[in-house]
Design a protein that fits this description.
The chain is mainly β and about 100 residues long. The chain has 1 helix and 6 strands.
Amino acid sequence: MSITPPGLTAEQKAKVNGIGNLNGIGQTATLCLASGGAGINPGQTYSGSALRYNGAVTSSPSFSSTLRTCNNGITPQGTWRATCDSDNGYGGNYRAMGTFVRID
């Protein structure tokens, strides 16, 4: 069953039908910057090629140890807007991580 309203172009239909899919418009994701040394600014847009899907693990069940990000290397498609503020005061190889919403 299609949720696509009538009268849309093929490109518009693809975007509407992508809603709810992993790479769909409006989808949120936890992402990190592909390269280290920079922070994430809320409201700023980022190309999917500059981001990687991400998650986090802790080395202790008490959550008192260092939290480490898990960069799986998978690049999202489209354009994403940051919904977070993630300073990277450590620089170097450290990668800022946060939440994003796909806008295109």
